[in-house]
Structure formats: structure tokens, C-alpha cells
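Researcher: Here's the sequence for the chain we discussed earlier.
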Amino acid sequence: MSGVRALVLLSASLALLLTSLPNTAAIVEGADAAPVRNWTFIIYMAADVTDTLPWEADINEMEAANQADNTNTIVLVDPPGMANTMLLKIEHDDNYFDPEIISTVLEDQGAVIPGGGEVNTGSPAILRDLIVFSATEYPADYLVLVLWGHGAGWRGLCPDGSDLLTLPELRTALTMAEATLNQGLDMVVLDVCNGATMELAYEICESANLLVGSELNVPSEGLPYTEVFDAIASDPIQSIDDFGKAIVDSYIDWAEYNSSHATVACLLDLVAVDDIMRGVDLISEMGLIFNRLYHSSLTNAVHSSEYCEDEWSVDLGTLCLELCAEDLPLEIKVASMEAAQKYFSAIIHYAESNMEEQSSGSTTGLSLYSPSSDTDESYQELLISQTSWMNLSFRLREDMDAQTSGPGPELATGDSSSDDDDLPDFATLTWEQDEEWNYTCYMIHVFRIEPNGLVTGQTISAVDPVVRIDGIVGSLLVSAVACIGDEAYSHQALYCTLSRLVRIDVEIGSPNEILASDIEVTIISQSNERLQIECSDGTCTGQFVAPDWADIGEIVTLQLVDLTSGRILSESRALVSGEDMALTLNVHRTDTDTIESEILLGFVAMIAILGVAVIVHVNLTRKR
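Model: Thanks. This is the structure I predict for it:
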């Protein structure tokens, strides 16, 4: 038998052996099959109002939906009138066109509905009892609460007559239910007008993970419940995020063809709300400081934002973007951009339809109200009032003109005596003192201008009119503020460049000896300026001035070149930060001997594999 034929036969035997093995991939796939998830939907229907909503039609829609296994829907509905509250477990009804409600009236209603058969949906105790009852009697992997009825933005929702369930009461109900169950809600769905507010999200973010709602009016028909519950029946093992997206899309798809109203809906990650609120709080703190000088620009940002109920109830996302666009100090713009990034990252899904009917344009997910100190006293009961937002809003509501800025500082740069390199590495700001402008404190924000944008460098607070900036290198924009008390009376933006000599040490890492006379190391800036670095004993050292030769934040390229062949042996990139740089260039030379040894090792490895195949093949043959 020739050598070639033997190799072919051995290869075929190895292939036969591999195909005879069990399908381990299929076994693993079966083991990883997604488990069935249990869902409990808790519907809180506040229908006992003068301006009635189609509660019977919505229950019929729920009954028309396919009922998924391991899914229970519990509805507390309080229709207009007295002693007629019902606690229902939704059952499937094939005859959707029959308006009769066929769902089961639960016998143990006393846990939720007191004697007399009437509840007040404006009471947090009723909502708490419904959640506890539903989750206890129908435990599930996912608990979803739907709040159904009229909404009044930050003032509350789900009224009984004129008694609103206020947002603090909503928070109380969810907090008490969670404490009893030792389990929070996975999602809160708002089937109410103007429900998706920052005020509501901040109230409930500790008790639920996700929020679905609209910051605009919702058509009286509300959510298309048949489509919403069919989305669960079609895929009961879907994630809670996917189901939230399905609610948003079902509502917008329905509204596109069944409503002339502008409709929007979003799915919000409530876990991120605290972080968003910290961003709003920082903007507000700065706004209070700068309101005296920039009142018009701040109010313009509010009035230029997309509005929801009125001009003082604005879309949070567009407010942040409008603040970035106004003539405002850079620190407010940066804080607004950071808040916008946090906010848009938390909007998991957003959709809209018929926006030509919305006179102000497109929204982004959540609204934020600017309260008045004269008419919105109850706003102070909200958690958001503990931030600086409410106080800033009170100031923005005032009718005032922006004041003229007082004199700013003189800026001078200098070279520290410790390094003696004739490079400016510190700056001094000096405010002249006079009787007219008796400043009491100073704030300095230092931003570095980098190739990819501005980076916050330093923040300095001082009571002395002479302030020194050092420890930072680059092309700098300095926002200099002088205050009297808590308000800015002077603001000026200044530019300067602080430099330093950056040392760069490169170590050559190689399995072979490399002589310094054989190589050349070059560093190349983004503007293609080249700087050769001296090498000896496997190390190379050089220096350059930052940001003159290379900007801070710039990516420079290092090349190690073989002078004999002209080949690039190694190439690396590094970020210029203003600090000394220590880098390693690893060289992998491939000469003739190395190539031959690699071929030999590869051949030996192939023979070894084929040898194993022969042994296995012989053993299998013997067993047969």
C-alpha cells in the first residue's frame, strides 16, 4: 500500500469515528431549554368617576385574548355607583362580540373588598391589599401591575370620584406590599393619561424594575388588551423586557389606525432612575447658582422643550438637549449632556404615532413638571422636592431679567521652578477687589480640549481671590465664577495651554537578541510628525512636549523597524495622557530555521493524530 493511499484510508477512518459519536450539541441544547415562566397580572381599574371610561369593553378585550398556561390575571374593578366593586379572575371568552363579562368572580373578596362591596381606589390601602392578595394566591415569577383610569401627571392617578391616588400614596402602597411579600413588582404599566413622569418614576423606582407608560394623553379606549395578552400567550417564556416592548408596540400599532390623537409610549428601566435624578439635581444646583446671570437662557431652554400638558410640563430628554444648546456656562452644558446620556440609556424602548397632531413635536419618554411656588404647594410632598429641581423651578417662574456679569479675573501662566524646563505648567487667576463687587467665593471648572471633545479636568472652590491651577496638562478652557453668597455675580470663560515634557520609555521584548544598531524606534503623531527614540541594551528612551507635539487624548503610533531589511518588526498605539509613558514592543522574528522547525513540528503532530486514528480504527474492527 502506498503512503498516499494509507493516509487517505486513515483519514477516512478518523472521519467515520467522529461521525459515529453521539450528538453532544443536541444534548446540551436540550439541557439549556428555557424554563416555563409564571405570570400574574394585577389590574387596578378605577372606573368610579363622573367622566366614565369603557371598563367593560377593556375586560371583554382581556377575555378575548388567548390565556397562556401558567398565567393569571386578577382584576379589581370599581364601576360607577355604590356597592358594586368586583374582584375577577379573567377567563377566556370565545365570543368576543358578546358584551357579557364571563370571568370568575372570586369568592374570597374580603381580603381586598371590605364589607359593603365598595372600595376607594384613591386609597393606598386598597392597592396594597390587591397586590398582596394576588401575589399570595397566584404566586409567579413575574408580577405585573396595571394602573387603569384617569391620570393627572405629577398630581396622581386612578381617582375615585375626586379623590386621587397621589404619587406619595402610590409609593406607600407599593412599599407596604413589598414589605409584606418580600417581593417587589417586575413591571408597572400605566394605562392613564400623562402618567410617564419623572416624578412618578422617582416615587416607585425602589419597588419596581420597569415602567411602561405615556407622557401624553391616552385615548379613552386605553391599551389594546387582546393584543397585549396575546403577546404573552404566543411566547410565555419571553423576558420581561421583551413583554414591555410588546406592550409599547401593540399600543402604538393600535393607535396608528384607531386614534387621531398623538400617541407615545416608552419602556423605562426604573433601576436607572436614581442615577438620572442625580444628573437632574446637579443641573438644578448649577442653575440656582447661575440663574441671576443666565435667567433668560434657562427659561428659554424650558420653553423650547417639547411640552406634554402645558408649557411647564416638558419632556425631560429634550429639556437636557435644549440646555446644551443655550448660551449657558459650560459646566451646565456638560452636566446636561451627562444627564441626557443617563436618561436615554434608561429608555429601553420608545415608539410614537400621529405626531403631526402634537403641536410641539416629538417627545422622548418622560415628562418633568416645573412647579410654581404660588399654585403647586402639594409638589413639596413628592420625593423630587428633596432635590434642587423644585427650588430652581420656583426661580425660573419668576419674572426677571438676567443681570450683567461683574469683572472677571486676570489669567497668567508660569513655569514651576522645580522642573526648570521653560514650559508653562501652571496658571493663576486673580480677581481685583473693589467696593462695588465684593465677591465672597470663587469656583473654577477646568475642561481639557481633546481630539474627541471636552473632558472635565478639575473643579476648584476657594475664598481667596487668587487661585492657582496646576497638575493638569493640555489645551484648557477655564470657566471662572465669582460669587456673593450662593449666586454667581461674575462668569468668564478663558483659554490657556499648560505643557510638560513627557518621557517615553520603550522596552523591546523578543525571543531573539536584537542589537541597538540593527533597529530604529519611531513615534508618530496623528499629524504625521515623527520623533526618533534613542535605543541601547533593549531599551529605548525619548521625550516630547505635550500638548505641543502631541495633544492630550491623541493616539500616537510606535514603530520598531529592522534597519537591515527595512521591515516593521512591531507596531503599537498608545494614548497620550500627559503622564510619562512606559511601553513594551514585542518582536516575533521568523527566519529560515524557525520556518523549517515549525514545518517539522506540524508534520510530527499530523503523524501523531493519524497514528491515534489507526489504533482506534483497529480496536473498533476487532470489536465488530
